[in-house]
C-alpha cells in the first residue's frame, strides 16, 4: 500500500507544474511524437531529425517520461505513450496546437501580470501587451491561426452528438472562427443549413480553409462578416456560440445575447457552448480556465450566472446539456 504524499511534497509538485508545461511545449515544437510514430528511437536519432543537441534532448525526454509523456525502453530508446500520442500532428483530437498556444510567450507574459488583475481592475493581458487579446491576435496572424486551431479537436464531435440539431432549419455560429464546429454539425445533420458569422478578417480566412469549403458543406453554408456587438444575421432558428461568452464580462455578454435574441425567430434557441463551473471544492479544469479568462478580461460562469445574464437579455435558461467533453450546451429561449 503506497504512502500518501506529505503536503510539502504535493505542494512542490504543484509549484513546478510550469516546468512540465514548458517541456511539453518543446516536445510539441520539435514534433517528437510525430517522429516516434514509426517506433522507438534514441535521443541521438531524434536529435538528428529535429536539428537539436542529443545530450540535452535526452534529458528533456527523460524528464517527460517521468510524468508519462513518452517512455524510455532498452538501449536508451524512447517510445510513444497514450499521453505522448495526443501531441501527434493531425491525430484525432490532437493537442499539439493547444500545447504550443497555451505555453506561448505572449500567454506567459500575460500570466505574469495576474497579481495586477487581483489587486486592481486592470486586465492582466492589457497590462502586459498594451492591448486586448483580440487586438493582439489581429496583429499577429501566426498566433491567431494557432489560437483558432487550438479551439478545435475532440469537443466538436461531442457537441454535435449531444444536441438534437436536426430540429432546426438554420443554425448561425456566432464567432465561429474558420467553421470547424459548424461543419461538424452540418455533416451530422444533412438537412440543416448554416451561417458562419465572425469578424470580416476571420471570415476571409474561413473562405480559404477546409471546413466550410468542403463538399457537402459549402452548399449549405453561407459566410457573413460583422461584429456581434452591433448585430448578427437575422431570422435563424438557433444561434450557437462556442467559447465566446467566456471571453467577455457580463455587460458585454448580455449585449451579445441581446443581439441574438432580437435577431432570432420567435421560437428560436440560444445555445451557449462553454464550461459550467460546478459547485463545491472538487478539482475542475473550468476553475483553472476561469483564471485564464481573468487574464484576458473574461470569466467562466456557474449555472446561476448564466441564468442571470440570460434574464438580462430577455431570455430564459431552459436546460444545461452536458457533452462528452469539458463543455456543456446552455440552452435559452425568449422569455
Helix content: 40-55%
Largest sheet: 7 strands, mixed
List the helices and strands in order: HHHEHHEEHHHHHHHHEHEHEEHEHHEE
Range of strand content: 5-15%
Total helices: the number is: 18
**Order of the strands making up the biggest sheet:** 6-5-4-7-8-10-9
Class inferred from helices and paired strands = alpha/beta
- Mean pLDDT, rounded to whole units? 94
Shape: globular
- What gyration radius follows from the Cα positions, in whole Å? 22 Å
Q: How many β-strand runs? A: 10
Distance between the termini: 57 Å
Which consecutive residue ranges, at least 5 long each, have pLDDT under 50?
none
What do these coordinates show?
It contains 18 helices and 10 strands. The strands form 2 sheets. A 7-stranded mixed β-sheet has the order 6-5-4-7-8-10-9, sandwiched between helices. Strands 1-3-2 form a 3-stranded antiparallel β-sheet. It has 335 residues and is of the alpha/beta class. The longest helix has 14 residues, at 250-263.
SSE inventory with pairings:
Elements: H1 7-15, H2 17-29, H3 32-35, E1 41-42, H4 43-50, H5 54-65, E2 71-72, E3 77-79, H6 82-85, H7 96-102, H8 105-111, H9 114-119, H10 124-129, H11 133-139, H12 141-150, H13 155-162, E4 170-174, H14 180-188, E5 193-198, H15 200-208, E6 221-225, E7 238-242, H16 250-263, E8 269-274, H17 285-296, H18 303-312, E9 315-322, E10 328-334
Parallel strand pairs: 4-5, 4-7, 5-6, 7-8
Antiparallel strand pairs: 1-3, 2-3, 8-10, 9-10
Helix pairs in contact: 2-5, 2-7, 4-5, 7-12, 13-14
Summarize the structure.
With 335 residues, the protein is an alpha/beta fold. It has helices at residues 7-15, 17-29, 32-35, 43-50, 54-65, 82-85, 96-102, 105-111, 114-119, 124-129, 133-139, 141-150, 155-162, 180-188, 200-208, 250-263, 285-296, 303-312, and strands at 41-42, 71-72, 77-79, 170-174, 193-198, 221-225, 238-242, 269-274, 315-322, 328-334.
